[in-house]
Recover the amino acids of this structure.
């Protein structure tokens, strides 16, 4: 598909908070399943507005996610560990302790941001790198350790082994 649409890039998040939660949801599951869970999270707990026949949803605010029980988050398809990690990220955002997109864009070394994020429970290097890739325009490829990304490079460029 990449050859069919050269230059096409995945959408970006405007807040690291959303990008980290999105990345946590995507951990170790098929993308299709992750997108269904993310959709349920947003439609169940985000604010919405109707314009004509269309309904538009916002990403749930940290206060909303903090207020939810783990069982309510599990009902949308999250594991207990992912639900707890999402609540922790919501609390970190609510307390103002997540780096802003501007701080990420101005960082001299993105590895320092990755290191800072991996201190949060439920966020490993893959999750941190995927989240940063969603908010930082010069970090477009996502996690360096992602096997699907490496396989894609192998197939696209015709390498014999994964880079």
């Amino acid at each position: 598909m990449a050859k069919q649409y050269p230059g096409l890039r995945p959408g970006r998040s405007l807040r690291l908070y959303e990008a980290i939660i999105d990345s946590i949801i995507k951990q170790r599951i098929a993308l299709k399943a992750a997108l269904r869970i993310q959709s349920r999270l947003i439609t169940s707990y985000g604010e919405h507005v109707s314009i004509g026949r269309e309904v538009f949803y916002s990403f749930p605010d940290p206060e909303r996610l903090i207020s939810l029980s783990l069982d309510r988050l599990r009902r949308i398809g999250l594991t207990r560990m992912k639900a707890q990690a999402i609540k922790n990220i919501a609390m970190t955002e609510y307390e103002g302790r997540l780096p802003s997109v501007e701080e990420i864009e101005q960082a001299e070394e993105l590895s320092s941001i990755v290191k800072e994020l991996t201190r949060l429970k439920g966020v490993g290097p893959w999750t941190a790198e995927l989240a940063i890739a969603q908010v930082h325009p010069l970090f477009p490829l996502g996690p360096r350790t992602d096997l699907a990304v490496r396989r894609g490079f192998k197939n696209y460029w015709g390498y014999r082994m994964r880079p």
Summary: Strands lie at 48-51, 54-57. Residues 31-45 form the longest helix (15 residues). The chain is about 55% helix and 5% strand.
